[in-house]
Every structure is written in C-alpha cells, then in structure tokens.
Amino acid sequence: MRTVLTVCAEAYNPDEEEDDAESRIIHPKTDDQRNRLQEACKDILLFKNLDPEQMSQVLDAMFEKLVKEGEHVIDQGDDGDNFYVIDRGTFDIYVKCDGVGRCVGNYDNRGSFGELALMYNTPRAATITATSPGALWGLDRVTFRRIIVKNNAKKRKMYESFIESLPFLKSLEVSERLKVVDVIGTKVYNDGEQIIAQGDSADSFFIVESGEVRITMKRKGKSDIEENGAVEIARCLRGQYFGELALVTNKPRAASAHAIGTVKCLAMDVQAFERLLGPCMEIMKRNIATYEEQLVALFGTNMDIVEPTA
Fold first, then answer.
1. Is residue 102 a known part of a binding site?
2. Which of 42, 61, 187, 310 is most deeply packed, by most CB within 10 A?
3. Domains within the chain, CATH numbers bracketed
C-alpha cells in the first residue's frame, strides 16, 4: 500500500539549476546489478517519461544500498538526500503526529519513496523502516533534480497547449487537463510497427501526436482467424485517439493498430485513464455507436464489440 502525503510547499524550480555535464555521477555496476536495477525501475512512474539518454544517466547515477531489518532508511524531519527504488525487502511507513509515530502503510518488495522532499524542498514527510533485510537503489538529490524534475517541467510546457487543444478533453477542468499532462508518456513507433493487437488485454489509451495510425480488424466466427484477412476500418491523425474502446467496455482489444511511417503517440495507462477521463466517458461511449455502424457496413455484423443491451 502506498500512502499519499500532503505537502504544502513551493515546488522546486528546475530552471534555477544549470545542466552541468561535469556534475554527472556514475556508479559502476556489474551486469547482474544493471539487470536488477532495470527490472526494479521499469514500473516507476517518475521514470516513464524519460528519453533513453536520460534514463541511461539515471541508471548510471543510481547506487545499491543494502539494509538490515529495523534500519531507518529515512527519518521524518530530515533533509532529503536521495530518492529510493526498492529492489527487494519490506518496509513500513511511519508518520509522527503530536509526538506519536503511527504506521500508515508499507511496501512489499516493490515501489519507490523519498521524492517529496526532493521535489518540494521540504523535510522528509515520513520515516521509512526496513522490516526485513533488503536492498534499495538510491538516486542522489542533484541528479534527481537535474533530470527527473526538470524533465517533468519541460514535458508540461511541451504538451500543455496540445492537450488543451483536444476537443474530446474540453469537458475537463483546466486543472484536470494539467493532470493529464503529468501522467502521459511518449512512445514512438516505426513504419509498420504494431501498437495494439486485436484480442489482447487493454492496458493503455493513445493520442496521436504526429504521424498516422491504421486501425484494422479481423473477421470473427471462423476457426482459422489468421486466414480471415484484416480489414482497415479507420485511420487516426494528430489529435485523434484510439485504444479507448477496450477500456470503456472492459473487453479485449477489438481491433489492431499499426504505425504508418514514424508515429509519435501520447500514452496513458488504464489506471490514469479511469481516474482522470471519467468526464470524457460519455463522448467515448457515443463513439461506440459510430464504430458499430462501420462494422455492420463492412462485415454485416457489429462484431460484438460491446455486450448486447436489453
């Protein structure tokens, strides 16, 4: 369980620090350490929007920290020095209120902590104690600010106007659209590359930033689906979205999507989609009727893309 702690402070201004190549920190690692580090970091939200070069610098700068059962990794009230990603081990989160410490959550062999003090220039908001022997990967304050915080600020500047311009997001408040900017990740696909596959479970929603995406569907109902050639049913251009149908209907992907030329998409995972795009859901549901009309014209059936309604 991860507990969200409220922090009231002025956010760190990434423009105040220069990107000094001379200050870059590198901790050498064995192949085994590098592999374990990459595995531990693959689902860390703060890292999802880094480009390959930035991610490489982050991995270079991280260092392994072994911990003993009962050890305090960070203490509430201290200055922030490192951001931590859990490699292995269990940890409890304690918050002291009126002089009394209370356990408010825990980590079990995955997750990260320590970013609040680094992002908002505040003392540590909680104490993290190891409840088993374990290992962490640490990222120092300077590198965290130089890459992670500055990258998030640049991403907001880059995508804020684009997100504001999307018609299907007009029903969101300005603050809600800014949250969309904070959670999106950028993905680039080469010509012919598959973005989503019909029949797969859905984990992401996509908005086309540049390029063109071809949406195809294979006919259902025969034993050898591979011989039922895929039919193109739509194309998506800049500002258009796809992948929402499976998230709205909670069914497997109803179609496949492939890049035409080089395509850049903004991607949002299913948890963020459900949390942030609720006000847009009616627009997306209305579009299902249009999809069904297209499928009836092409296949003579709506392909059961949604459950029959009474």
1. no
2. 61
3. 31-145 (2.60.120.10), 166-299 (2.60.120.10)
